[in-house]
Amino acid sequence: MGKKIGIGLLGLGTVGTGVAKILQTPDKRHPLVRDIELVGVAVKNLERPREISIPTSILCQDPNLVIDNPAVDVVVEVIGGIEPARTLIMRAIRAGKSVVTANKAVIARHGEEIASAASKAGVYVLIEAAVGGGIPIIEPLKQSLGGNRIKKVTGIINGTTNYILSKMAKEKVPYKEVLEEAQKLGYAEADPAADVEGLDAADKIAILSGLAFGGSVERTNIPTHGINKLKSIDVDYANQLGYRVKLLAVAECLEKKENETNSLPLAVWVQPTLLPKEHPLAGVNGVNNAILVEGDPIGQVMFYGPGAGAGPTASAVVADILNIAGINFLGEKSGCLDPLLAASSWRMCHLASPNEIIQKHYLRVKTLDTPGVIGKIGTAFGEHDVSIQSIVQFDASQSGAEIVVITQEVNGEQMSKTLKEIQALKEVIGIEAQIGCL
Amino acid sequence: MGKKIGIGLLGLGTVGTGVAKILQTPDKRHPLVRDIELVGVAVKNLERPREISIPTSILCQDPNLVIDNPAVDVVVEVIGGIEPARTLIMRAIRAGKSVVTANKAVIARHGEEIASAASKAGVYVLIEAAVGGGIPIIEPLKQSLGGNRIKKVTGIINGTTNYILSKMAKEKVPYKEVLEEAQKLGYAEADPAADVEGLDAADKIAILSGLAFGGSVERTNIPTHGINKLKSIDVDYANQLGYRVKLLAVAECLEKKENETNSLPLAVWVQPTLLPKEHPLAGVNGVNNAILVEGDPIGQVMFYGPGAGAGPTASAVVADILNIAGINFLGEKSGCLDPLLAASSWRMCHLASPNEIIQKHYLRVKTLDTPGVIGKIGTAFGEHDVSIQSIVQFDASQSGAEIVVITQEVNGEQMSKTLKEIQALKEVIGIEAQIGCL
Questions:
Q1: Residue A328 pLDDT class (50, 70, 90 cuts)
Q2: How far apart are CA B381 and CA B387, in angstroms?
Q3: Hey, which of A136, A195, A413, A416 would disulfide with A355, CB 3.0 to 4.6 Å?
């Protein structure tokens, strides 16, 4: 009961430093922070000057030494990347130590292997910091919303792209220009691929989906479209039509078809999406994140806050450590885990085929400026039973016209058939943009 | 390990019915819901027709019988009101049973007595449903944000008044008219005092303050102003100046003065307040609630969702039951409690004097329409070191002019001295409105 919890920290970058700072200054924080003690820290370079002071006696360069240190009860992995993080997490679990990690890439790709090892070893692997920075979102999905049938999780969960999109919308600046500025400000990495191509958001929605629906899906098969091909003209047209463009990551449970296997079909995807201006996520700007959860009987709840940064991420890491420290008060380990906190999977899930995904679409079609072209396009939609919400002609000139169509909800199959037919119209020069729409 | 948890439900109104519905239909909810069993239900009237079917064998009219039933592990109190709820909660605690309650009035007034009894008996009293309906806000303050030094909690935590204010702003309808409509729609009670006078919000901010800062304040001394005296003209002027008017409930930790006692001074209050349109809470409309929490190092996080209603509130009640069920998996009770979940107080707090509260003010001053009046008012502010953010004259006519002043941040003492001086000016007919401003 209530002995001090020894923390072994793997990595002392911005997040690791943030965690150490909190643990070193427990005053005015939850009193349980005083029961948490940093007893080992693995760093790449012992000589590097640091903004916090760590006793040299607990610093070392070999993370394995930290993991194996008998004074370490909980291993905090904030190195990032797939390897050696994955191997170190597995080693900690085998050593019977609970793990706290901010590593979305490892959890999204090797979550099942890690969870299964943790369950066998009777330890926790907690990941509040892996999604949404400081926003408490993992905990609500695991615990506070447990009485609900979750229907849909919709997130703006990549701060870099949200910063770029906010700027494109507000200042009408092209994508490349905003990206360069974001890189200068440190909001985007020198190699921005993981952010702008949607891969980071896909990692995160894979994790949220697993918690919301109780079973994992194949991370690599999540349909993922980033913002790197988005044109500012579409952000502008969307604006004029009353929409904001956001990079959304969505996980939604589809109605089961009869006679199907006992696995739950999920529509999980990442793509730039038009949101009506009054949608709760439409006002989320800059590097902020927000996650909207829909369930029965709760309706809609939204969690909003800083999606990244040393302080917020460290706050989430410490939340997980506190949870383990709190349970530690209940006495000697009985080999059992709190099933809410452990959050093992409890249902089979699978990715629905893209053809089953039902949504609205925004299309920008370049056409010759000839009379009747809107009629022909409208007819093509009608022939495939696709209802149209609006069809607007922008910017007619000698070089042609731009027609923007927003459809009603259609499935993927209807949509691709319709697109083929439109493409074949002799008045149509090309389909220049296709974006999702809520 | 993992035996079924027996629930005794006191009250089968809308929230109680919502809870029973969730427990009766565990399919697709967290698998732990299957481990929770309704074993006793106390109702006022056994004969009343109900939308759910409860076995008559577990229905009774005497809540004491439910509490004393040995099959009942957790008592869920959803009767509401102070008595007999308080007595029943205390009886359950003495019987060694954990309690889940949605009763903000009892917790705000008798929280300390209840917490102290619970701590002695080694049981939990969980209250997620008492504030913000289905929004997980109690749990984050108790657990997920525990690594932070919380600075301020700002909430829109009364759905009825937020509905009225949203309507007043959008449709420019006077308060009384909107209230009557809200009563017809069931959004406001026949006796609306608890909502429109701010008492319900004061109960809730007292609870949030206690969790955020680790110590309670005297509920009855919280400065509380409702919306019942708010004029639609001020909502309209605020709008024109770029603000929304919301009924805010705030708890903020003030800097400690040197040589003071070891108690933390808190500014806790409820009042109609102007919010700049870009403030995260400004877009919260209708019966929704939202709570903004500021802390170090997290920055700002916001929790948004349905603040009332059977489904959302039942979701929060079940979240608490699940937490108890999860911990139950850890084996026989050792007499110890998880200190995060138990959330006993850990710091002395007290209400700061209103004179210490620093904020901006919105004032509407009725004056004679004579030249120089703005200058004289401006001078009065300057003499008391009150900086002005804006001063605007609205609606000059024969009957006089209306001058709206928004000050910079000032303390209560400066403000009341300034108001006296302004009132004494011969050009001033009266100070018609004084509202807080963020």
A1: confident
A2: 7
A3: A413
Q: Are B22 and A298 in contact (CB under 8 A)?
A: no
ipTM of the modeled complex? 0.95
Please indicate whether, in this complex, the C-beta atoms of B338 and A326 are within 8 angstroms of each other: yes
Looking at chain A from residue 252 to 281, which residues have their Cβ under 8 Å from any Cβ of chain B?
280
Phi, psi of B358, deg, nearest 5? -105, 125
Tokens describing residue B88: 């029943």
A194 and B CB contact within 8 Å: no
Q: Catalytic: which of B97, B142, B204, B246? A: B204
Architecture of the domain spanning A141-306: 2-Layer Sandwich (3.30)
Four-way CATH pick for B140-305: 3.40.50.2300, 1.20.1560.10, 3.30.360.10, 1.10.10.10: 3.30.360.10
Angle at B224 between CA B222 and CA B226, to 5 degrees: 160
Q: Where do we find the tokens 């917790």?
A: B107
Please tell me the CATH superfamily of domain A5-133+310-344, with its number: NAD(P)-binding Rossmann-like Domain (3.40.50.720)
Fold of B355-437: Alpha-Beta Plaits (3.30.70)
Residue of B nearest to A282 (CA): B283
Best B137, B148, B332 member to test A by mutation, with max A CBs in 10 Å, is: B148
Of B135, B297, B340, the CB nearest to A323: B340
Residue A260 has pLDDT above 70, yes or no: no
As given in the structure block, the two tokens for residue A269 are 């995807």
Q: CA-to-CA distance for B124 and A279, rounded, in angstroms?
A: 38
B5-133+310-343: which CATH topology? Answer: Rossmann fold (3.40.50)
Predicted pLDDT at A1: 43
User: A299 and B327 in contact by Cβ < 8 A?
Assistant: no
pLDDT of A352 over the 70 cut: yes
Asked if A304 is an interface residue toward chain B (Cβ–Cβ < 8 A), one would say: yes
